[in-house]
């Protein structure tokens, strides 16, 4: 298949591309710069990977490539401009792809998150639209099956990680340990966060693209790790202390988004995904990554 991939040079994209190439697909990867183009060209055969320098603001470019390819995998998201701005752009891009692919029967994959559904949810659970935009975007994506689009939602683990760079959530935990904030790495009770190595998640994208039915949700989760264990593992490498955040109510209120994340108990079901697609996560676990990472990883 000819695949159009946004966010091609990011953590997910650079792990999706090798699996696409290994399984005989070709990929056009949307990147923002020539430097990023060089990154993805190094991931495989030059005949299988075509970098395309552009942005999500170039709607004509997105439409033409969606129409000229057999599948679209949308991984790009603007995290630097703030959650609402990035989420609005993500939804607009999904709608754009939906209009471009209507009636084609082609695959369109959206990147979502397991944090959007309650604890214990399986792949049939539907996210509930509310204060965040991403649940709405997930609902919109799944509804595209009614326009003869093979719409697929990949719900990622809270920590889709690799040793190249620390995940943003662990970076936030370390940031909270600053003296002008909590002064320690926080956790709440026995809450767990889901985790998956990015290479395993990358393979699942490709497996789902190849054979998922329209309106399918898959859970890209390999393990569940107590936030307390994450905090203690980070403390072991950085020298920070750890603490129960909910006992420090005044400072806890200043944590913003991290305060919300700490309250999530993110254990979801994955059996259907694994059995249906023959997906067997084999990548390094999150705590093992902390043990093996260089000191620069924690800066």
UniProtKB/TrEMBL annotation:
Residues 7-134 form the NAD(P)-binding domain. It holds the Pfam family NAD_binding_10. GO terms for cellular component: cytoplasm. It comes from the Eukaryota. One of its GO terms (molecular function) is aldehyde dehydrogenase (NAD+) activity. Transmembrane segments: none annotated. This is NAD(P)-binding domain-containing protein. The lineage of its organism: Eukaryota, Fungi, Dikarya, Basidiomycota, Agaricomycotina.
């Amino acid at each position: 298949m000819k695949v159009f991939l946004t966010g091609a040079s990011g953590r997910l994209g650079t792990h999706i591309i090798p699996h696409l190439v290994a399984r005989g697909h070709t990929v056009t990867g949307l990147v923002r710069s020539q430097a990023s183009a060089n990154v993805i060209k190094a991931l495989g055969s030059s005949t299988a990977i075509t970098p395309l320098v552009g942005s999500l603001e170039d709607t004509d470019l997105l439409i033409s490539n969606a129409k000229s390819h057999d599948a679209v995998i949308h991984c790009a998201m603007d995290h630097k401009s703030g959650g609402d701005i990035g989420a609005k752009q993500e939804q607009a891009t999904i709608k754009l792809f939906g209009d471009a692919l209507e009636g084609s029967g082609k695959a369109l994959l959206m990147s979502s998150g397991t944090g959007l559904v309650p604890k214990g949810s399986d792949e049939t659970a539907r996210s509930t639209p509310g204060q965040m935009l991403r649940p709405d975007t997930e609902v919109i994506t799944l509804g595209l099956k009614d326009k003869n689009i093979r719409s697929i939602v990949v719900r990622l683990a809270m920590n889709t990680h690799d040793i190249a760079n620390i995940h943003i959530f662990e970076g936030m935990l370390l940031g909270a340990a600053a003296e002008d904030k909590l002064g320690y790495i926080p956790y709440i009770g026995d809450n767990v966060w889901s985790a998956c190595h990015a290479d395993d998640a990358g393979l699942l994208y490709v497996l789902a693209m190849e054979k998922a039915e329209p309106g399918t949700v898959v859970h890209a989760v390999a393990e569940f790790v107590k936030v307390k264990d994450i905090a203690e593992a980070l403390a072991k490498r950085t020298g920070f202390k750890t603490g129960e955040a909910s006992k420090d109510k005044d400072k806890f209120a200043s944590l913003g988004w991290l305060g919300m994340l700490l309250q999530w108990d993110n254990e979801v079901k994955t059996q259907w995904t694994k059995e249906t697609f023959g997906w067997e996560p084999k990548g390094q676990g999150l705590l093992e990554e902390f043990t093996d990472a260089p000191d620069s990883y924690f800066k």
